Structures are given as C-alpha cells and as structure tokens.
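Query protein
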Amino acid sequence: MQSTSDAAQVRAYRRYVALGDSQTEGVGDGDDAGGLRGWADRFAEVLDRVDPGVEYANLAVRGKLAGQVRAEQLDAALGLRPDLATVVAGVNDLMRPRFDAGAVAGELEAMFAALTAGGAHVVTLTFPDVGRIAPLTRPLRPRVRALNAAVRAAATRHGVTVVETEHEPVATDPRLWSADRLHASPVGHARIAAAVAQTLRLPDGGPAWNTPFPTPAARLTLATEARWAAAFLAPWVARHARGRSSGTGRTAKRPDLLPVAAPYR
C-alpha cells in the first residue's frame, strides 16, 4: 500500500477518532438491534492490540454528506484532541444529482486542515469503481475518479495518509459488499480495517488486505440486477426525493473517547 505522506511511520496512538458516514458507522457489519461493528471498530481493535490502552470515539452517522460531516462532527472531534483521526465521506454526495467533486473535496480538506493543525495524524480512503460493484451505477464512474483525484490532492497538501482502494481488483469483489451494494459486508469491513492498518505499517495488520479470493465470485445477471434495483435502489431514490436521509434523527454511536473494549450504545 502507498501513502501520500512520509508521516505514516510506525508509532503509538492513544486517542483515535473516526469521522464519516455509514461505512465508518459500521452499517453492513452487524445490525441496529445487536450493534454495529464496522471497519473503524475493527481497526481500533488492531491499534489496541499493538499498544493496549487506546481510547476510541466514533462520530460517524449514516446518510451524511461531506458538508454535514464537517458541520456536525468536526468540532466534536477537535474537542477530543485525537492523535489519530480517520475522515471518510463523499459517497452520499456522489449519488446526488448536483455533484461537484471539488466542493466535496473542499469539505474534506477543511477537516484535514483542522485536524492536522490540532496535532492529529489523519487518514482517508479513496473509493473503488462503483460500476463494478453495481453495474447500474456505471454512469457514476467519472464522479468517483474525479473525487478520488481531488481527495489525493487535498491529502498531499496537508500530509494526510491515503489508503488506496480505487485500483485494487478485490475492492469490487461482491463478497466484500452487503446485499445493498452500498455498504461493506463483514468481510469487507475486515478488509478495510486491514488496509488502514497495513498502510500505517502496524505490525498486527494481518494478511495482505488486497489478496484475491481463491475462487471466482458469482457472476451478476440481469435478474439479480433487477432484484437489486427494486429492493435497494428504488427505495433509496424515493427516500431522497422526499428529502429524507437514513441518518435522520440518529446520533453518533460512540461520541466519547472510551477504552476500545468498553461497551457503548
């Protein structure tokens, strides 16, 4: 894995804060009844195994646009004085009619600037080819490429570490994605956590995150695409046409810094 910053050296972190939307919240890895885990939780567990005593907060809320993540999570994150922060957002923006890669990256860059100025090592991710995950979303490919390029440029300006997934074939393997194809599956969340750990050169990062599966994935068919569109795409479009978000009325699952193993809501 490659990083945009020489700052990605092995070091100990004591306060890790995660900002973002549904992926960072952990949607797709568990459920609301039993609790969500997600890649940020899994990565925090790696940090704690490497150097026990890490405190972890997760401010992410599903459905949030990048500007909402900045407006609703940044001040709280700065107040926690993290020495490590992850900032991952922009997919919800990608799917809106009026998408501007530069504007979205600008929201992310504002968070990069504030968190690094506060002393945090900041990590972000690029996004994989959505057209290979859900073929009906192929028209969004240019948006993904534009956003990834803008995020890389912003990260370079602020010494932010970038975890690259865009060109990794395994990142679009359907086994890494839940049935809605918008959120990672438990396997996918585990791979994302491993990608972050390995990019930071942590000694307990596990097997290479981008190792291909030993058997090929099942092929998508017109029938499976039609079922996916009816079950997931159409409801998403209808909900947003009514001006609603999956995050309406929700708050962060872990707003305070706590030991990694501590229970939380």
